[in-house]
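Saturday, quiet lab. Running sequence design on the C-alpha cells for the scaffold JK sent over.
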C-alpha cells in the first residue's frame, strides 16, 4: 500500500496495490504492521461500521467529544463519495480547516482520520456502501454534529443544496463556534 500524508496533520491517504487478472483482483485493505511502519500510528481498532446511502445523501459532520473521540479508517466498497474531515483540534496549526477527498470502490483509496476531527461524506453515485474502522466504541452521549454548511469550516460540497438529502440530526448540527473542541 502507498501511504501519503495530507495537508492536515495526522490525516493519511492510503492506496492499496491491486493484483489483478481476468478473474478480478486481490488486495490487502489493512495490515497493522505496515500501517504503523508507514504512519507511526499504532492502530487499535475496536469496531467496524458500514452504511449504505443513495445519491445526494450527505452524512455529517460527526464526531464524538472528549474521551469518546474516535480515529477512523474509511473506505468505499461500492459507489463513489466525497469524504470530508474538519480539524477540531484547538492547538492544531490547521484548526478549522478541512479536506475533501474522492473515494470510490473503483480506486480502493482509503482515508485515515485521527481523533479530533469532524467527519462526513456526500454520495455521488446511485448508491454507496461505506465502511470504516474506529478506535473507540460508539458513545451516544458523546455524539456531536458540526453543521454541514457551517461557513467557518467552509466545506464546498459537490452537490447543489436542493439535491442534498440530510437527516434531521445533521440539519440541526452546531455552528463551528459552538462545538466541543479538542486540546
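Result came back. Writing it out in full:
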Amino acid at each position: 500500500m502507498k501511504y501519503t500524508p495530507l495537508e492536515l496533520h495526522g490525516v493519511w491517504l492510503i492506496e492499496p496495490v491491486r493484483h489483478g487478472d481476468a478473474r478480478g483482483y486481490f488486495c490487502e485493505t489493512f495490515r497493522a504492521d505496515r500501517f504503523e511502519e508507514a504512519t507511526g500510528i499504532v492502530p487499535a481498532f475496536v469496531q467496524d461500521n458500514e452504511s449504505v446511502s443513495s445519491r445526494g445523501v450527505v452524512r455529517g459532520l460527526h464526531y464524538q467529544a472528549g474521551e469518546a473521540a474516535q480515529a477512523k479508517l474509511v473506505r468505499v466498497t461500492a459507489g463513489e463519495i466525497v469524504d470530508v474531515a474538519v480539524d477540531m483540534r484547538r492547538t492544531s496549526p490547521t484548526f478549522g480547516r478541512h479536506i475533501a477527498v474522492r473515494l470510490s470502490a473503483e480506486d480502493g483509496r482509503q482515508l485515515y482520520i485521527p481523533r479530533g476531527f469532524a467527519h462526513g461524506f456526500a454520495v455521488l453515485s446511485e448508491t454507496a456502501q461505506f465502511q470504516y474502522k474506529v478506535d473507540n466504541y460508539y458513545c451516544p452521549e458523546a455524539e456531536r454534529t458540526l453543521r454541514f454548511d457551517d461557513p467557518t469550516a467552509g466545506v464546498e460540497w459537490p452537490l447543489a443544496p436542493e439535491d442534498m438529502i440530510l437527516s434531521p440530526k445533521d440539519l440541526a448540527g452546531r455552528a463551528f463556534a459552538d462545538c466541543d473542541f479538542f486540546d
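Notes for JK: The first strand starts at residue 2 and ends at 5. The first helix runs from residue 32 to 39. Ask whether to fix the surface positions before the next round.
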